[in-house]
Amino acid sequence: MTEKTAVMICGHGSRDTAAVEEFNVLSTHLKKRLPDYDVESGFLEFARPMLREGLDKLRDRGATRILCLPGMLFAAGHVKNDLPSEVNEFAAEHPDLDVRYGRDLAIDSRLLKAAAQRIEEAEQAASGTVDRKETLLMVVGRGTNDSDANSNVCKVARMLWEGLGFGWAEVSYSGVAYPLVNEGLDRAVRLGFKRIIVFPYFLFTGILVRRIYDWTDEVASAHPDIEFLKAGYLNDHPLLIDTFVDRVGEMLTGENVMNCQLCKYREQIIGYEADVGAPQVGHHHHVRGIGTDGDTDHSHGHHHDHHHHGQSHDHAPGEES
């Protein structure tokens, strides 16, 4: 029998219509870049189609191998637990299929270049020029209850700080982790920099990105002596698409190995010792496919043996940071 390989792009899902539209644009880009594969996409919660619907479509269209690609930046609860739970359940029901699970985008040189370009675009759009040594860069992550994922945001910030030559860099989060953006900015303004660039290290727009920009506006209005720039998020940057395509290739060669050394579900990480060996059970059943805010009728294979359980709700289609 001839193998027919398909790709399932796995997003988180959002009530925000614009966020879902941007995720779908990403899916369109990947379909163009992967012409030899049958490509579908789906979501863990809120938006349609649901992951299971997409997987069923691929199987019905004759796929014999399905590569499940997490559309998320970093590996926290969704990548380590919720997505594998869904994928493993489907694979167990269809032992005739070769179902493989990929890894998160992680820290990648191409994503750092894309991030740098978003920051540079904000500088170029500014009315004046401020030396980077007089500029503080605030990198904002999603925030989860996984310290490994949160620490990745710190690494991204440090590499952008050194690579672009800013005078200082700070990290904050849109939720769950400390400090939140407003708290981080309140601290940042005390450091005496002429300009602060706020960069959401996110894939897509949504409630959280708008909250980040709103917080920035509030702090800026209270400190008119400091210039605040709001950099764009990654969105469908070509280098992001390149990275996704590489993750698909890794599933075929067996290189899609996550970093398990600091995984709180495998190792006793400080403060999360009780999470070791937690069951791999999804927690999105109650909101699967209930719809976005734009809907008027909604109510309120080979499996990766990595993980487990986490409780970090991302309400954007593909964020995990």
Secondary-structure topology with pairs:
Elements: E1 5-11, H1 17-33, E2 38-43, H2 51-60, E3 65-70, H3 77-93, E4 98-101, H4 109-125, E5 135-141, H5 147-164, E6 168-173, H6 181-188, E7 195-200, H7 207-222, E8 227-230, H8 238-253
Helix pairs in contact: 4-8, 6-7
Structural summary, described in words:
With 321 residues, the chain is an alpha/beta fold. It has two domains: 5-106 and 237-287, Rossmann fold, CATH 3.40.50; 109-230, Rossmann fold (3-Layer(aba) Sandwich). 37% of the residues lie in helices and 14% in strands. The protein has helices spanning 17-33, 51-60, 77-93, 109-125, 147-164, 181-188, 207-222, 238-253, and strands at residues 5-11, 38-43, 65-70, 98-101, 135-141, 168-173, 195-200, 227-230. The strands form two sheets. A four-stranded parallel sheet has the order 2-1-3-4, with helices on both faces. It has a four-stranded parallel sheet with strand order 6-5-7-8, with helices on both faces. The N and C termini lie far apart (41 Å). Residues 296-315 have low confidence and may be disordered.
Q: Please tell me what the overall shape is.
A: elongated
Low-confidence stretches: 296-315
Tally of separate helices: 8
CATH C-level of the largest domain: Alpha Beta
In CATH terms, what is the fold-level topology of the largest domain? Answer: Rossmann fold
From N to C, what is the helix and strand string?
EHEHEHEHEHEHEHEH
Largest sheet: number of strands, sense, barrel closure: 4 strands, parallel
Mean pLDDT: 86
Radius of gyration: 20 Å
Distance between the termini: 41 Å
How many separate domains make up the residues?
A: 2
